[in-house]
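Hi R.,

Here's the input for the nickel (II) ion complex you asked about:
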Amino acid sequence: MTDSEIVSKTIQFVKETLADAEGGHDWFHIQRVYNNTLRLAEEEQVDGLVVRLGALLHDIADSKFHNGDETIGPKVAADFLASLNVDKATSEHVINIIENISFKSSLEALSSNKKFASRELEVVQDADRLDAIGAIGIARAFNYGGFKNRQLYNPEIAPEPNMTKEAYKKATGPTINHFYEKLLLLKDRMNTSTGKKLAQKRHQYMLDYLNQFDNEWNGLL
Ligand code: ADP
Ligand code: NI
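And here is the predicted structure with nickel (II) ion in place:
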């Protein structure tokens, strides 16, 4: 099978698998991350098939939607890639990307330093992070909060910006807190130079939004 046949079969598989996904983790999230990946990869020396498959499969079975189980996503992806006879080196690299891409696994990496690293992971991680910030990031955060029936904001519940991975997974705070616990931290964690540049603008948009939110909350505007 050619690389482009592998990619189109993967696109088909992801669309089917995510048909009923939460609105912020559906096929269109994957499509945006895929497009961001292609854009960032233009400036980087990376394996094109690995980054494309990593982007397409990175949320194939997110632990958030599987009772916290972090083994399902890598397993579903590994079985799928094996069914296409994708070579072992490519498949293992893609699995490593899926296992290490998320914000919570980077929290664990900070405290353990046992982590996988590659330029391909960095590109897909930046592509995913860009979709977590800016206007789309705001929409996704509130959609996820609604999906979990979280409060929009509660001035009595302070954000906890330095959570461990376990605390982060259990967090049930209001959605505005998620900005201080994750979304506003992302711009300083970008890996690629194009990613850093794009993140700046999206970050500023979130700051402006939070300022407006605060003013309206307090009846000032
Ligand atoms: P992680 O689960 O490691 O934070 P993801 O990249 O899977 O990483 O998170 C994806 C997106 O899901 C976040 O960027 C955000 O939009 C949404 N999300 C996750 N947790 C929350 C939360 N507690 N409140 C609001 N949105 C959230
Ligand atoms: Ni994602």
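One thing worth noting: Residues 24, 62, 64, 102-104, 128, 132, 140-141, 144-145, 171, 175, 178, 182 surround adenosine-5'-diphosphate (ligand 1) (CB under 6 Å).

Cheers,
M.
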